[in-house]
Amino acid sequence: MISQFISALAKKSVLHSLGRMMESIAVQDLLNETFRQPRRGHAHLSSVDLQSAIPPYTELGTYDLNGRTSRRGDAIFITARFRSGSTLLWNLFRHVDGVTAYYEPFNERRWFDPSSHGDRIDATHKLVSDYWREYEGLERLGQYYRLEWISKDLLMDREVWEPKMQRYVELLIEKASGRPVLQFNRIDLRLPWFRHHFPNAKIIHLYRHPREQWCSTLMDVTSYSKDAPMIEFESHDKFYLRLWAHDLKYHFPFLDESMITHGYQLFYFLWKLSYVFGVKYSDYSLSYESLLDEPDKQLTYLLSRLDIENYDIDYLRSLIVEPSRGKWKTYADDDWFSGHETICETVMADYLGVTKICGMP
Predict the structure, then answer these.
(1) CB contact at 8 A, 109 and 117
(2) Any idea of the CA torsion for 92, 135, 38, 263, to the nearest 10 degrees?
(3) Which residues contact 319 (CB under 8 A, 6 or more apart)?
(4) How far is Cα 93 from Cα 183, in angstroms, rounded to an integer?
(5) Are 266 and 272 in contact (CB under 8 A)?
(6) Alpha carbons 317 and 24: distance in angstroms, whole number
């Protein structure tokens, strides 16, 4: 990327003034934007330094940060990719007594704003009448919400400075009646940040078989064929794959579309990255298929791990509508999928310098 940036400057015949330009705020901002480097400001100021320094004036007192909302242990975060069954899991929590379940807090429809969220419901979200009921009266969230959360800095390490995001999540936790449950589709690669800033929260990771999930993202499996080139995928990208790749390619260069031959490869790269992050940083990983196949067993175990006892398992089971399965077999055969998956696994292994990456469970 650096060589490309310098090459672009050379074409504009401004190399002679590069040194002077590098000192300008505008160019520094351009570099930050281009390379997506999260800004950090505490490399030499650790939490130990802050806590160990005794105030020189008695009236300043001491401050206990352990009582902050971000330290609460009752919050639950659900992390999942789009079309993985996350709406179903959210809806199940929504019908558990003593729980306030927030649907996709970073969604661009801004559920807290009646003038923007509209009344459209995805027809594939069975037994869901609205997404915004829990947000009523929380217009204050608009002070902190940023639309760029859906498309920028999708990879966040623990040290990223994002006070607005933190306060936004804290407010949702504070305003919840009972246990707060926040269901996200945009934080898989931000889990290091969430784990650090909300250390006592429980994180539930939901995933789905990538082949089935791929067909679900297409909505219509005949719309983008197995033989179509990557260049034709743009009009069929309904769940932000290209948007994610554009942001994350600065960290994972194999996401550059020019290196990808089919949309499924782009999907699988992101599926695998999300899966690896989810398994590493969550308290519990759950497959969508196991929830469908063994709802009583999986829900009982999950809710037990969360110390939730007051629920009606029969009613929760009634909220699960079995989707059609096996669509991927009508899209392409096993050899086709395996071929693309092998390419992706090989590329990631080469990039990471390893001989094996964990596969699906």
Answers:
(1) yes
(2) 50
(3) 88, 91, 92, 95, 127
(4) 10
(5) no
(6) 60
What the block records as the tokens of 298 is 């999986």
Local structure of 77: helix, strand or coil: strand
Helix (H) or strand (E) holding 203: strand 202-207
pLDDT tens-place values along the chain, 361 residues long: 323 322 332 333 333 334 444 444 455 455 555 544 555 555 555 556 666 677 778 777 666 666 789 999 999 999 999 999 999 999 999 999 999 999 999 999 999 999 999 999 999 999 999 999 999 999 999 999 999 999 999 999 999 999 999 999 999 999 999 999 999 999 999 999 999 999 999 999 999 999 999 999 998 999 999 999 999 999 999 999 999 999 999 999 999 999 999 999 999 999 999 999 999 999 999 999 999 999 999 999 999 999 999 999 999 999 999 898 999 999 999 999 999 999 999 999 999 887 566 655 5
Residue 317 DSSP SS3: helix
Residue 157 CA to residue 298 CA, distance in Å, equals 31
Whole-angstrom distance, CA of residue 231 vs CA of residue 219:
19
Find the largest Cα–Cα distance for the chain: 73
Statement: 71-352 belongs to CATH 3.40.50: yes
CA distance 45 to 53: 11
Can you read off the two tokens belonging to residue 123?
């027809």
Rg (CA), the chain: 23
234: how many CB neighbours lie within 10 A of its CB?
Answer: 12
For 112, the 3-state DSSP assignment is: coil
Residue 245 parent element (H or E) = helix 241-248
Alpha carbons 84 and 93: distance in angstroms, whole number: 16
pTM comes to 0.85
Which structure tokens are listed for 235?
Answer: 């009009």
* Location of structure tokens 């990039």: 351
128-132-135 Cα angle (round to 5): 145
Domain boundaries, the chain: 2-35, 71-352
- Listing DSSP states for 160-202 in one string gives ---HHHHHHHHHHHHH-SSEEEEEESS-GGGHHHHHHHSTTSE
